[in-house]
């Protein structure tokens, strides 16, 4: 398995897609139930293969991620070959970007000396999707890129 198995909730949400996946392998509900009972290791492999297929699709289409911590916001923008990063840091230790108040403070203080903003980038290695997945594993979430684009425009990148 290249990534991680989908959660039970994710499988439930993707039930129609999983059913189609099994059908593409000539596995109907009766055969699936039999497989789970008689060959659970094969059923587990099917779950893993489906999970990797879903992850590949999600990661291939990922263009933006955001990661929030108490005093930092990491914004990531991707294309096929490059990863671009904007890091926003509150220099005041009592600011918490995990709260609505902290985000409001950032909006008000973005042009002050209490906020540090850095940007950078690098080329992806040989496996773009794995690198994006690793960032997600560290706590980043998929994003529509609005905040990334606002800061990119603000920094004139």
Automatic annotation (TrEMBL):
It comes from the Bacteria. It comes from Myroides albus. This is Histidyl-tRNA synthetase. InterPro entries: DUF6495.
